[in-house]
Amino acid sequence: MPTPSAPPTAAQSPPAEQRSILLDPAFLRLWTGATASGLATWALPFVLGLAVFDRTLAATDLGLLLAARTVGFLAAVPVAGVLADRHSRRGVVLWAGLAAGAAAPVLAAGLGRSVLLMAAAAAVAGAGQGACRPAYQALTAEVIDAGRRQQANAAMTLAVRVTTLVGPSLAALLAVFLDTSALLLGIGLLWLVAACVPGRGARPGAAEDTPEPSPGAGRASFLGEFTEGVREARRHPWFLAGLGALTAVIATGYSATGVALPMVSRDEYGTEVVLAGAMTAYTAGALAGALLIARLRPRSPGWAALAGLACYGFAPLSLVFPVHPVVVMAAYAVAGIGIELFNVPWFTAAQREVAPDKLARVSSLDFLLSYGLAPVGLAVIAPAIDAFGATAVLAGCALVCFVAPATAALVPSARTFSAQRRSGRAR
Question: Counting C-beta atoms within 10 Å of the first and last residue's C-beta, which end of the chain has fewer, N or C?
Answer without folding.
Answer: N
